[in-house]
Design a protein that fits this description.
The chain is an alpha+beta fold. Helix content is 27%, strand content 34%. It has helices at 3-19, 23-33, 96-106, 176-188; strands at 40-49, 52-55, 64-67, 75-78, 83-94, 113-116, 122-125, 135-141, 144-152, 157-160, 167-170. The radius of gyration is 20 Å and the shape is globular.
Length: 195
């Protein structure tokens, strides 16, 4: 083993030890880096929250609930707030271009911050769990839905995973790949520009 290879292995081991306490790091690899090959991506331009606010009978404090339409085919479920948003438009991308979009997501870099306490403990810091995604993505292999993902560049987070196995991650929005996915998505919907 050369000196360069030895240093690379040592750096990987040190990095994995430092991140070993953060379970989300392995999940990031599993659900983002390891996104299987896909031949189609549905890119969804999201609008605002859907539903009608209905006051709760007998309450004087303005409390109410959101009543959604029975047909939710033009709505997208935005987590973690259990909200449904309107779908302004959607496009299905196939072939090499679909794989290019998937490659952008696979190359996202996790954004993990940590603080080392006086006693040596590693404390991982998070951010508020806001999530206002302008775009959502459904990655397919044939007719099989691999992942359903919503991405928010403003809050630097995304929610990804197959049904029943959803994960919430922070990512570095400044990488070439993160910006590449955003720019490619914006070009698909020039009539629905971002504010």
């Amino acid at each position: 083993m050369t000196r360069r290879q030895t240093l690379a292995v040592a750096a990987l081991l040190l990095g994995s030890c430092a991140l070993g306490e953060e379970p989300k790091h392995d999940d990031f690899k599993t659900y983002i880096v390891a996104l299987p090959p896909c031949d189609r991506v549905e890119v969804i331009r999201l609008g605002e929250g859907a539903g009608e606010f209905v006051p709760i009978e007998g309450r004087t404090d303005g409390a109410g609930r959101i009543v959604l339409p029975d047909d939710r085919s033009n709505l997208y479920h935005v987590e973690p707030h259990d909200e449904w948003w309107t779908i302004l438009a959607r496009q299905s991308i196939k072939g090499p271009e679909a794989e290019r979009l998937a490659s952008f997501l696979r190359a996202f870099q996790p954004y993990i911050t940590e603080r080392i306490e006086a006693d040596g403990r590693h404390v991982f810091l998070g951010y508020p769990k806001c999530h206002f995604p302008p775009f959502a993505y459904r990655f397919y292999s044939g007719d099989k839905l691999l992942y359903d993902t919503s991405v928010c560049w403003g809050c630097a987070n995304l929610i990804v995973g197959p049904d029943g196995m959803r994960h919430y991650f922070y990512f570095n929005t400044h990488t070439r790949e993160a910006q590449g996915l955003l720019e490619a998505s914006k070009k698909l919907f020039p009539e629905h520009s971002l504010k």
